[in-house]
Amino acid sequence: MSDPRFVASNDQLLALLQTPTRACQCSLQRCAGWESVSETDWPKETLQHIATLRDPELHEPTFEEHHPHQTRYESADAPVSVKHFPYNRCDVFACQSCQQTVLRYTEYGGYYIDPRARRIHADLVSSEGADLHGAVIKGGGAS
Ligand SMILES: [Zn+2]
């Protein structure tokens, strides 16, 4: 197995997302916003690690968050922006039975670690990815 591929933009993330094909009994139903999911609750048999949002070139991804519409970190409708916290340190997983996409990263406290997960869907991911400091990257670009 090679390393999961690095997803560098919202457009690339959108391309990965699949519409869930059927209702699923995933144990992660509650994770509409970011929720703690312990290692023992994580359904690793059904979730395949398909990609990462962590830039291998970046040592300290920013803690800046992206909330243009007054959402908060834990909001179920907070927009996904791969350049911003906490998406910039997430791994991307897909459920093998329903194709639901789930992001996960680990919060590091002083003496604890706290894995957090969030189910995402395409409506949360803007194809105009936001850059840091509020600037908006236009779609298209160099490609
Ligand atoms: Zn599922």
How far apart the termini lie comes to 28 Å
H/E topology pattern? EHEEEEE
Radius of gyration from the CA trace?
15 Å
Query: What is the beta-strand fraction?
Result: 15-25%
Major sheet strand order? 1-3-4-5-6-2
Query: What's the overall geometry?
Result: globular
Overview of the molecule:
- With 143 residues, the protein is mostly beta strands.
- It has one domain (5-123).
- The chain has one helix at residues 10-16; strands spanning 5-6, 35-36, 47-52, 91-95, 101-108, 113-120.
- The protein has a six-stranded mixed β-sheet with strand order 1-3-4-5-6-2, with no helix packed on it.
- A hairpin with a 4-residue loop joins strand 5 and strand 6.
- It is globular.
- The model is unreliable at 139-143 (pLDDT under 50).
- Residues 24, 26, 95, 97-98, 100 line the site of zinc ion.
Labels describing this entry:
single chain; 143 residues; mainly beta; 1 helix; globular; disordered C terminus; binds zinc ion
